[in-house]
Amino acid sequence: MKKVKTAIFPVAGLGTRFLPATKASPKEMLIVGDMPLIQHAVLEAVEAGIERFIFITSQGKTAIEDHFDRNKLLETFLEQRHKIADLEKIRRSQLQPGQAIFIRQQDPLGLGHAVWCARHLIQDEPFALLLADDLIISKTPCTKQLVDAYEANGSGNYAAVMEVAMADVSKYGILDIQQQTNNVMTANSVIEKPDPTTTPSRTAIVGRYILDPRVFNYIDTQKLGVGEEVQLTDAFNPMISQNIPFLGMLFEGERFDCGTKEGWLDANIAYAYKDPELKPRLLETLNKYTISN
Fold it and tell me: 6-259: what fold?
């Protein structure tokens, strides 16, 4: 079985929910804890054994490329000031020459189209797909959990899944479950943003995948799905019919939807709570505002 060595990061979105903060800065550069969202995703991929990183970008996203590049002026400054801890932090954010590839998604046609843009680079290997908007705090990185599930269960398409409230199923791709063994379930089909009255389950896909390279043969860029976009989930059902399974993995950890202001705020509070230096100040601040109100 081929190893998962490549990851795709779709980062072409405009981030309109965070305007005006994202007018000139990519939403993926929003900070959670002491790192931008995209760095959280990249470090998660590194810890899962990923060696090559493909970023699907658009105009105005050069800050992401700069972030993972070297900044020799800053490094020299930190070395001269003996700020070794800070120097190690920025070196940890760098990718090695040849590891990072940046591709433009010239039209905002959705996740399926963004993945399709990398088709010539993947060749015949499974690959990871990480959406930086979904930040997952877990003991074992979520992508590593997926890689382990893939290596244990064999080829196919895999996604991290979680149970959501019935009122929220219309926000997600939902699994029609055939069977479940431990934390891995096989799907009869995947339905994009179903109506709560007709949904087959509450098991929802979140932004972590291991995908079979044959998925590129099933992404129809001429067919717009829900939201007038090329939906990645529309490729899965034809693959299932051709005996290429789709499996959902109930992951260990807590997921934060940092594509919303509320989710981003929750993620920052969670990180501060887990930081022994910040936790006392966090509790003090929350207590102050609780008492004042």
Answer: Spore Coat Polysaccharide Biosynthesis Protein SpsA; Chain A (3.90.550)
